[in-house]
Design a protein that fits this description.
- The structure is a homohexamer.
- By secondary structure, chain A is of the alpha/beta class.
- Chain A has one domain: Carbamate kinase (3-Layer(aba) Sandwich).
- Chain A is 43% helix and 23% strand.
- Chain A is built from 10 helices and 16 strands.
- In chain A, the strands form 5 sheets. An 8-stranded mixed β-sheet of chain A has the order 5-8-2-1-11-15-16-14, sandwiched between helices. A two-stranded antiparallel sheet of chain A has the order 3-4.
- Chains in contact: A-B, A-F, B-C, C-D, D-E, E-F.
- At the A-F interface, helix 5, strand 5 and helix 6 of A face helix 5, strand 5 and helix 6 of F.
Chain lengths: 283, 283, 283, 283, 283, 283
């Protein structure tokens, strides 16, 4: 009987979070090893469906790196990066889109459906959800897009009908061109547009580190300082920038967590400490 | 980190039940030591609010024995029982109603509200939810009622608006008379009328016992046999009769559990084994 | 045939009032001899159901004085009053609540149902409709509450579903404590919160008197002057204060009438003169 | 004060009828002296608006005899009747329509609006509410129509939006032709189609008479016998036929009353005896 | 096959207009030879139903000149005009109303219904849609009305239920009097009140002419100048005044077209050039 | 002016079809040269958006042949066909899915959005819209699916919100496997499930031919005979089988038309003759 008691206890510990986030939208950037490691993937899918059933409204935005390179390599193409951005000519864009939209997106949808959710896969072209223009900050890098407009009408429609939307980070230009957009940024923009409760970025590190220690909780100002004072570097900089942008637009909290940890999502949402870094406006 | 993993694991173990019972009505007879023992009571209230938040629709029907006797004794009145039923003259009926409706009912409501639910207290007089006539099987025992009509219109209205209804087992006669009705029966009749998923009867024993062992799962026929063959006796007989009646009217499962065990409700609903006896039509 | 014509004539005289108050909320404080005199009581219930059927939305808030004292005396307790307020220790509060909520409230509900209405009984604890804190103006008088928050969500829900809500003046504290609140004040606060058309206070006198004559109509300023200049005294002062507060919060008219007159409600609402005192912002 | 009591008493006497007919549709054929006598007319309009405000759904179908003849005579045309039906050539039909639709119909609408109702005037051409074909029972009598189809979609729409529809007895043919239809029949057909609670025919006599005495209440079979045994004759025959047809189609009661009596409508509906003849399926 | 291609081509040319005006309200003043010439009339009715089916919301306001004079002459009455306005004594008003409401209005309704639309005929008296007072600018000219209030609640209700409302320019006074109002003005006022996309005035000339040439497109300022500089005269002045008033109240464009041209409506709406004059705020 | 008249004429000729098919669902299989020929493609997209704007509910199911082979060939894979079905091993299935879902589907969506529609791209995996099992009629041909279940819940949701759904013929197995399904069959099954008004199959031939002549209209029995008597052969056989299946399931008409003809869709729907073959249950 002891075990059973523990079970009840744990369910009740999760309860304050269930209550607090009931009916709230949670935008999750899904990528990295959480996508490639089969166990982490299955755990992630279970977590998403659980979130939905206990009353939250999860929206998934996914990435896709390795699969894209794999297909390019099979076709004898060579990925080129510039300032961490994939130089995307038309042929590359076609590959990117086919892999993201035609393979990974529907694969996630299928897994969610198999685990008891009702999921629909979209990309930014659907109902022109993500409209982009050419990103020119680093010169001509082709069909890399900068999101200029977000329209979540169809996402809202699907959420209200109890679907879990899964969105591939492919945007459309005013003239119909296809753009490759950064998945973290796409997730942040969608969260901003929907005034989401949470934006959760799954990465392959444990969160924001300082002096070798994980920062569990930080506020907007600290996030800005960390960038300015170069406490963080590399890929963590754009992630913190996403966090700052989202918080300033009204998202209540941004979480940077290690998607490689099984059930990272539940562990982060359903406990006080969490397992990664939570950034809020004020703490 | 180990503990955190266990937490996620347990949440996920609860998930199939959350999924299965999503949106379903669960009528719970609340009484006995679950009402008198403060820790069991708080645990019960927490469980009810949790059920609501993870998507079920709990309806509480409560009893009230000891409190009634206490007030009667303060007033110098002496409880009289006949065939296990309280002989209820007009003065006694007044006490019963004041205690059930004016004290216990609103007390449960307040506790639920304090724990994050939205609750409303009703009795069978409200919108004539429970209509009774005089119970005459055992001769004249006064204002003891036999339920002849159940009207859950207002209960449905409240559930649809996300309230947790708490119902005192006081019924109204066609002419406006007040009747004392058995709480188990009232819960069963309400469950039948609403085609509830579950009827859960909290008692002070662990469930149906046979040869000193708890029966975890039994079917309708076995329940009938247990009564006929006198495997069960005393208070368990009317409880099994309630179960039989409910199942025959379309309720999917009836649970007889020990309300004295903390979090009995969650332990019963969110595990395969459960902690008491589950009766189903067919197993 | 003459009588028949008179009948039509009278129905038509009532018509302008029916038209004017169609769809409007009328909060009625029910108490005094209208509750204790059986004929006045039956007439009152008929009036309430009639108001509902001709298109108004009555909400009843009731008092309960004599019944409370009766039960206290049976229990050997002695009512203590201070500045007109009942000193309410925990034991007294329990009695007050049992009588108001468990006896009088559901009795009114039953009568309304018997006369063709659909009624639900509530107290301030239900959905935390009335939240109070300790009244300390006159020192420690125990569980006497000052209403600090009114939430009529469930009242609105019930009105929209064509129920007649009956509310006992028992409030809940932030921590779950039970408070005894003044019924006139509770009615006024509810009327204010709902922006009611009318607040009607049933008393045992004919209305506001000046120089031995009934004042049929007065305005806000006159009401204030009457208090200041001590034209009124005793129990009429808090009633006029309720009227002032209600009018200032947007209630369109407040009526102080003699509930001992049979059908006082209809006589007041369905005629120009009325039978008591009507207070309006401006006349 | 005495008068005031009487007032309340009478309102309460009307109450059982208000309750019984709440939300029910009442189709009223308006014609005869109730239309020509200014006082009876004003009383009728008041009654209709009152019915609406106390919760019924009145639908008016009106006639128009004398006005039609007046205009015909001004134009030097001579009314011709055959078997009580107006022989209606094209020129006559034009006059009939202009008077009914362009004069009387909108006049009734205006009066209702002035008395506090919201009214819309229709004829059978609007949304093809009344579709007729040529009546040939008595040979060729021109544009006299037999109703073959009733479509009350727009009437329902207007009732649901709280309008009082006023319908002129002009029907449309499949090919767009205009037909003059009998107002009693049109009212009956509309009542049948809407499964109305009541069909009320205003005439210039007190009701169905037998041996010089008014029959207050009769059933379907008696109505049939009265026709067969020639207890009734002349214009009362088609009225009883309308009643029989309506009752057989599900209308709950048909009333034949003297529209010349002021407030005949209220007097009939709001009393047990009534002032005319009520025909029901079974008594 | 050639013809078929042309067909598709033309449908597609109409498409931008269908898209642009989807769901928009178009108020059309129908009068002149479009009403008297049978071919132009049938073409007009077809156009109106087509507009409805491709997604617009047409509202028709009609005139009626010649028919009124015809009936007056049959009755030996002589039309008198003053400043272009019909001097309207009570007898004349009766004729005007009977012809407009009782003949022309329902005739248009019938034609629309025969061509596949669902139409309802109204006048300004229905639900007091058009409230007028006596026009006194030119001295006493009797029941000629100046519109002082427009209430399109019932028009909106009918449009939402997919009906095509047809409105006769007869208004009601505060006291119930009947007023003859100008159809162009009535159409403009209704368009203004509904914030219509278009107001289309059918006339018997091709549009606004200057130096013998048709002006296809003009703006608000030009319209004002044309009046001031007397480029236009006679009946075109009040039409341009209607246009100016409508545009200033938020109507998006006003069209003055020759109703004698078959399918003038479609030709004007579904092409760039149009066939008459379009007035817009700015061009 | 002549041209303008013709335009109006043609719009009016289309009108009966617009009226007849208003609010009806039309499932269109889009494939062949209509997809590869840029002019035919643009014309098709225009037609689809036009259908939507004039009130129909188009649903697109597309094929994708040549693009699939192109990518396979770039990857050095060789298409293998057996009984006209693509032998689909896992690697081939991946290519098929990426091309259909990740390239062609979203390309169509983008074109529709650019032409003024609101479109969403789906495949059979989304919300498990198309569930298939392995097709084994011709031995093991890999991931070629036979549709066993169709669930159009999300398609209905999108249509009701005015979206144009575009569906790729990729189905999901019970266990999550991906299946390649025939686009004609998928379109037919969806049409059957939605009780569509029309199923339109775009092909590269003009329709069903007999003795070198196009059959414009045929009925169900003739379709069966044509197959049995081998009047048709090759790819036309499964198309006629789709037609038969759809008609038997309640689809009102099936059209087999040449998608290579520009605006084939409009030409077929908006004329009596049409340009291809229409199959109906009875003619």
């Amino acid at each position: 009987m002891k075990d059973e008691f523990k079970r009840a206890q744990i369910l009740l510990e999760a309860f304050p979070y269930i209550k607090e986030f009931h009916g709230r939208t949670v935008v999750i950037k899904y990528g990295g090893s959480a996508m490639t490691n089969p166990r982490a993937k299955e755990a992630f899918i279970q977590d998403v469906v659980l979130l939905k059933y206990v009353g939250m409204k999860p929206v998934i935005v996914h990435g896709g790196g390795p699969e894209i390179n794999k297909l390019m390599s099979r076709l004898g193409m060579k990925p080129v990066f510039k300032n961490g951005l994939r130089v995307t000519d038309e042929a590359t864009m076609e590959i990117v889109e086919m892999v993201l939209v035609g393979k990974l997106n529907k694969d996630i949808v299928t897994w969610i459906n198999l685990h008891g959710g009702k999921s629909i896969g979209l990309c930014g072209k659907d109902a022109a959800t993500l409209v982009a223009e050419r990103e020119t900050r680093y010169g001509d890098i082709g069909y890399v897009g900068k999101i200029v407009h977000v329209n979540t009408e169809v996402v809202d429609l699907l959420l209200d009908a109890d679907y879990i939307p899964v969105i591939a980070p492919v945007a459309v230009g005013e003239n119909g061109a296809t753009y490759n957009v950064n998945a973290d940024t796409a997730a942040a923009k969608i969260a901003e547009n929907m005034k989401a409760e949470k934006l959760i970025l799954l990465t392959d590190v444990d969160g924001v580190m300082k002096d070798g220690k994980l920062i569990s909780l930080m506020n907007l100002e600290e996030a800005k300082n960390f960038i300015e004072e170069k406490v963080v570097e590399g890929g963590m900089i754009p992630k913190l920038q996403c966090a700052i942008s989202a918080l300033e637009a009204g998202v209540r909290s941004v979480h940077i967590i290690n998607g490689g940890i099984e059930h990272a999502l539940i562990l982060e949402i359903f406990s006080d400490e969490g397992i990664g870094t939570m950034v809020v406006e004020r703490r």
